[in-house]
Design a protein that fits this description.
Distance between the termini: 32 Å
Order of helices and strands: HHHHEHEHEEHEHHEHHEE
Structural class: alpha/beta
CATH topology: Rossmann fold
Strand content: 15-25%
Largest sheet: 8 strands, mixed
CATH class: Alpha Beta
Number of strands: 8
Mean pLDDT: 95
Length: 281
């Protein structure tokens, strides 16, 4: 975490992962990740209602695809993408420069504790706000980054049980594991899935008019089963790293078979379900 200063103690493990091997993998496969969830981008950005002079804060921006799209919409404004991963932010900066965008910046920081200047009128995130160690403090800090009446648009995953992509991957690699997902109070992709809990969280942090819209789109994991297999084994291979050789080989074969069964003319697709959360500061 050499490049990050002021990380909250509750986020240190997450920062070590995202600024380490996990972030390196995402940076190396930036095209893959940006394409995978691209079907959600237009709905997220439309909900944010970004104006030409908007100042946009993009939290958990990764390699910056939504930050770049926000900057294009806010041509006379500014977009700032923040993330824990130096590797992904390096990709984000290079891609913004290649796109000729002069109104976009990227910062490696912990959004739970960073002291923003309070000037942003839009807050967006595509699946980047579910991993805070202390959610109440994180969202209160994000609220302090915004001007009064600022618009918020957050894309978060619905529950583990509603997301076939995760159930299929876990079921293939670890068929004996209970398909219940992570504990609801732990940082995870599904940490904001419960509408009631998340509404209470956001309202307690200073947001109002909290609304949820259910969205469903397939995620694309590769152009064919071979590409998807190589990608997912790199992404999720840690799940089977401790198995013996025979068990690991069997898990890999199940993964390949599952992906082959979901191969379509548009690539290997697995269903996903998300909430588009909107609110006001």
């Amino acid at each position: 975490m050499a490049g990050i200063t002021g990380v909250a103690e509750s986020n240190e493990a997450m920062a070590e992962s995202w600024d380490g091997d996990t972030g390196a993998f995402w940076a190396e496969h930036a095209d893959h990740f940006e394409r995978s969830g691209a079907a959600y981008d237009d709905e997220l950005l439309a909900a944010a209602d970004i104006r030409p002079d908007s100042r946009v804060l993009d939290v958990g921006c990764g390699t910056g695809v939504t930050t770049r799209k926000a900057a294009q919409r806010a041509a006379q404004g500014q977009a700032l993408g923040v993330d824990l991963s130096a590797q992904m932010l390096a990709v984000a900066r290079a891609r913004a420069e290649s796109a000729g965008l002069s109104n976009v910046e990227f910062m490696q920081t912990d959004a739970q504790v960073h002291q923003f200047d309070g000037s942003f009128d839009r807050l967006i995130s595509r699946t980047g706000v579910m991993f805070f160690g202390e959610r109440d403090k994180a969202f209160a800090n994000l609220a302090s980054a915004l001007v009064p009446d600022a618009r918020v648009a957050l894309l978060v995953w619905r529950s583990f049980g509603e997301n076939d992509w995760m159930r299929q991957i876990v079921g293939a690699l670890l068929p004996q594991a209970p398909l219940t997902g992570p504990p609801p109070d732990a940082p995870s992709p599904f940490a904001l899935a419960d509408r009631g809990t998340t509404t209470t969280l956001l309202e307690g942090a200073g947001f109002r008019d909290v609304q949820f819209q259910g969205l469903e789109h397939p995620l694309v994991f590769g152009r064919d089963a071979d590409e998807a297999y190589a990608f997912l084994l790199g992404l999720s291979g840690w799940m089977i790293a401790d198995l013996d050789e025979d068990a690991r080989r069997a898990a890999e074969e199940r993964l390949r078979a599952m992906l082959a069964a979901h191969e379509t003319a548009h690539g290997v697709q697995l269903d996903s379900a998300a909430w588009l959360i909107t609110a006001r500061r």
